[in-house]
Amino acid sequence: MKKSDKKKVAAALIFLLLINMPFTTSEPYTDTEYYTETQPYTDIQFYNYTVQEPYVENVSVNYTVVDTGNTNTGRGSDIWVTIKNTDTENGYFDIDFYATVPGEGIPIITEMPVSGYYIPAGETRTVRAGFNDTVLQFTYAISPPAKEITKYRNETRQTTLTKYRSIQRSREVTKIKEVRLSLFQRILQML
């Protein structure tokens, strides 16, 4: 074989070796990635629950009647009611006295109001009314002051619940892979 042929064969062998020698490259590719996501949803069933709902109520101040009396004098009568304010609130009491006095053949009932009589909490006071006639008997009506108190009542309410569920999702992602091919293999892939 001639020297020039040997060079050609050697060059051809080197060329074949070079195009068949593998080398590594990084190539991007698209892949589907799966993941789990927690998603809230509203449960359509109604759930009952109870709350303590405050409300304001007007109630009378607590009191007791300690004593009542009637004193007839020559010029008329004095009647009285002794009231003890047993509450923690002060207040103005209204007392209406109804006295039966002698009339001409028929007894007459006379009303004597005593308004705004102040009695401090825990104190006792005597409320008096005077009549020009002799009182045969009497009754009374006491209107104690009002106070506001906060009370609580159970109130049932309804609500829906927010619950959570796991959902499988997918997305397209770009990844990198290492490819080890020779130049010849790469040329063949392009064809």
Order of strands, main sheet, comes to: 2-3-6
- Please tally the β strands and state the result: 8
Instruction: Compute the average pLDDT.
Output: 87
**Beta-strand residue fraction:** over 45%
Low-confidence stretches: none
Q: How far is it from the N-terminal to the C-terminal residue, by CA?
A: 36 Å
The main pleated sheet reads as:
3 strands, antiparallel
CATH class label of the largest domain: Mainly Beta
Q: Which overall shape is indicated by the principal axes computed on the Cα atoms?
A: rod-shaped
* Structural domain tally: 2
Describe what this molecule looks like in 3D.
This protein is mainly β and 191 residues long. It has two domains: 23-49 and 156-191, no CATH class; 62-144, Immunoglobulin-like, CATH 2.60.40. The protein has helices at residues 3-20, 183-190; strands spanning 22-60, 63-73, 76-85, 91-101, 108-119, 124-131, 137-143, 146-182. The strands form three sheets. The chain has a three-stranded antiparallel beta sheet with strand order 2-3-6, with no helix packed on it. Strands 5-4-7 form a three-stranded antiparallel beta sheet, with no helix packed on it. Strands 1-8 form a two-stranded antiparallel sheet. The radius of gyration is 53 Å and the shape is rod-shaped. The mean pLDDT is 87.
